[in-house]
Amino acid sequence: GENVIVMENALIRASATDAVHIGHHVLVGPMASISGASIADEVFLATGTRVFNGARIGERAEVRINAVVHLRTVLPAGTVVPIGWIAVGNPAQLYSPDRHDEIWEAQKDLDFPGYVFGLDRETPDLMVQLTERYGRSLARHADDVRLD
Question: Is 22 helix (H, G, I), strand (E, B) or coil?
Fold first, then answer.
């Protein structure tokens, strides 16, 4: 988009299944990361925010310091995710980080290992397969160029 500001040490990367789209007048704060997500116009992603694969953030939303927009989550226009909170689901539900069990229940069906890596969570050697698959995928970035 036009008038997009990406601060230092931010990471923006498409995934194998999800491109990245960033609308107009977006500010991506320092050390934020966006992985295969869609960011609408006039969005503020504060320092250290994380936006996971398949997420969609609506216009004029704010994701505050160290907050997370989880996998395949849809954040409606104008939503504010408070500092350190987690947004999960479609439509997004907002959780403070001390509500781990509720967050897990909400995100479990989003199936992170299945959606991102094509692996069943119950696979006995899940981490072996996941890290090998992810390593092969990341090897594509060996010649990436840092944009200053």
Answer: strand
Band of pLDDT at residue 47, cut at 50, 70 and 90: very high
| Phi (first) and psi of residue 64, to 5 degrees | -80, 175
Q: What is the pLDDT of residues 74-109, one digit of tens each?
A: 999 999 999 999 999 999 999 999 999 999 998 888
Read off the pTM.
0.86
Tokens 């994380």 correspond to 50
What are the CA-CA distances from residue 62 to residues 28, 29, 68, 125, 141 (Å)? 10, 11, 11, 38, 30
Q: Is the pLDDT score of 139 beyond 80?
A: yes
Token representation of residue 11: 């990471």
Q: At the fourth CATH level, which superfamily is domain 5-110?
A: Hexapeptide repeat proteins (2.160.10.10)
The DSSP 8-state label assigned to residue 48 in this structure reads T
For residue 78, give Cα distances in angstroms to 50, 70, 118, 122: 18, 17, 33, 37
Q: Name the residue ranges covered by the structural domains of the chain.
A: 5-110, 111-141
Work out the angle at residue 15's Cα, subtended by the Cα atoms of residues 122 and 112, and round it to the nearest 5 degrees. 25
Residue with tokens 């954040």: 75
